[in-house]
Amino acid sequence: MLAYVLVNLNVPAEKELVQEFIGMPEVKDAHILFGEWDLILKISGKNSEDIASFVIDKVRSLEEVNLSSTLIVAK
Questions:
Q1: What is the Cα–Cα distance from 72 to 59, expressed in whole angstroms?
Q2: Which end of the chain is more exposed for a tag (fewer CB within 10 A), N or C?
Q3: What DSSP line would sit under 18-51, residue for residue?
Q4: pLDDT the model gives residue 55
Q5: Residues 1-11: tens digit of each pLDDT
Q6: Which domains does the chain have, with CATH numbers?
Q7: Alpha-carbon distance 1 to 54, whole Å?
Q8: Residues 6+ apart with CB under 8 A from 41
Q9: Distance between CA atoms of 9 and 13, rounded to whole angstroms?
Q10: Distance between CA atoms of 12 and 34, rounded to whole angstroms?
Q11: Distances (CA, A) of 28 to 12, 36, 56, 67, 70
Q12: HSE (CB half, 13 Å, CA atoms) of 11?
């Protein structure tokens, strides 16, 4: 299953976090954005539970993260 996660930060930590996310096995690609969202992550998992666990445990749990939005790709 493929998904994109948009991330809004409450502090300027884009460069550090994008490198941290790139090192995670679930993350296939990560980029810094300009505008309302600060980062976009392309992630994969076996199922929606894997996607949810990643977002809850590894994205939303970070103190730098203000808001996230997960977009699951329809195939």
A1: 15
A2: C
A3: HHHHHTSTTEEEEEE-SSS--EEEEEE-SSHHHH
A4: 98
A5: 999 999 999 99
A6: 2-72 (3.30.70.920)
A7: 13
A8: 4, 5, 7, 21, 27, 29, 30, 59
A9: 7
A10: 12
A11: 23, 22, 18, 21, 15
A12: 7
Question: Which residue bears the tokens 């790709």?
Answer: 73
Bridge partner residues of 9 (DSSP): 65
Cβ neighbours of 52 (radius 10 Å): 14
**Does the structure show a pLDDT above 90 at 70?**
yes
CB atoms within 10 A of CB 7: 26
Backbone angles phi, psi at 22, to 5 degrees: -60, -30
Taking Cα atoms as reference points, which of 29, 30, 25 lies closest to residue 54?
A: 25
